[in-house]
Amino acid sequence: MVSQICFRPSMMLVGEELQPVKDQSLIVTDGRIEAIGEPDWNCRQVELKGALLVPMFIDAHTHVGDTGAKELCTGLPLEQAVIPPHGLKHRFLASLDTVTHIRMMRHGLLEMLSNGIIACADFREQGLTGVRNLRRAAEDLPIRVRILGRMDEKLQGEALYAEASELLEEADGLGVRDACCYDASILARLTRAYRHKIFAAHVSEDRHSETVCFQQSRQSQTQRALEWGSQILVHLVHASDEDLQLAARSSGVFGVSCPRSNSLLGDGLPRLSVWERVGLPFGLGSDNVMLSSPDMLREMDYASRMTRGMTEEPTAISSLTLLKAATIAGARALQLDQELGSLSPGKEASFIAFDLNSLNLTYIHDPISALVHRASTADIIGIYIRGELWKQSF
Question: pTM above 0.90?
Fold first, then answer.
């Protein structure tokens, strides 16, 4: 039997340009958006007067594996906190039994859903076992998890290629810890052999790694990652203007910014005003769950205020650019934009209903700015996944 629902909110952000429209209806058939416009009175009606409907968020870079280590590494620099094999994070992960770790990761995914996140890209440590454990953690949950596996950094040559190939048979791609930590020729072979997979890398996250890469290869981390075929460049905190322009000119390449975690680790601040100026498409990520809550509202707000403050220019970045980064641009980076990222006919009907009558959102003049700078998860009155109200269950 066909299920058809007519949602009637006060306002929606429609299409890939997130255009605000008032007093129109969202017609959903079997979990997909059929039309946006006049109400259809022949199907089930869902009255959402006073609500603003927004596409669910895309968290374009995460580490769900350390959900159980919240605040464990606060105050430590990058190397001591997360670099293998001796970083505190990896010592913590090594202490966990499989069942406990899967339970912790599932908790992290549920936390994402409760914050309005419908998809994420996870850099999954612990090889093939890590990939499989995250798949188990996500079983029966409606969140889309792009699992990007990681190889043993001690491997070289054909042994490295063999382990990567084994990972790529089950994972959605590879998530490389550092653009220079593997043989570039091996990574280039992999990107050519597995063109349908996603290849991502941490790039220019901290000044030390950028310096070491140049000393070893006479290339910047951005140049190195693009040379072997990385499609997603995460962080780019210390990328030069020339590197950002190079990335922007490279077809199919996306940046991903995680400013809250960069700040907490003392790595520096991404220059998002330059990203926007050179035309680098980018998503936002919340990064390690142990460092930052998986909350795209907080990520957008911090990114906006940080950028305007750094440049001493209130027009340094567009609120719409940041909202797109948390929705449609993130979906494009993860190759999910045919299904998610905007309220458009044919796409999955997964959206967030914000209460425009909450104390926080009453009297707003600009809904996009309000979402970026003012809204919180406390303003959410409903999360609808494939047209049905999602019930949180821990």
Answer: yes
**Contact yes or no for 254/333 (Cβ under 8 A):** yes
Q: Could you tell me which of 116, 173, 169, 119 has the C-alpha nearest to residue 144?
A: 119
> Following DSSP, what letter does each residue of 273-338 receive, concatenated?
HHHHHHT--EEE--EETTTS-S-HHHHHHHHHHHHHHHHT-TTSS-HHHHHHHTTHHHHHHTT-TT
Q: Tell me the two tokens of residue 153.
A: 């950094």
CA dihedral (291, 295, 301, 307) positive or negative: positive
Secondary element (H or E) of residue 40: none
Q: Do residues 58 and 336 make contact, with C-beta atoms less than 8 angstroms apart?
A: yes
Classify 92 as helix, strand or coil: helix
pLDDT in tens, 231-266: 999 999 999 999 999 999 999 999 999 999 999 999
Q: Which residues in 216-242 are b (16+ Cβ under 10 Å) and which e?
A: eeebbbbbbbbebbbbbbbbbbbbbee
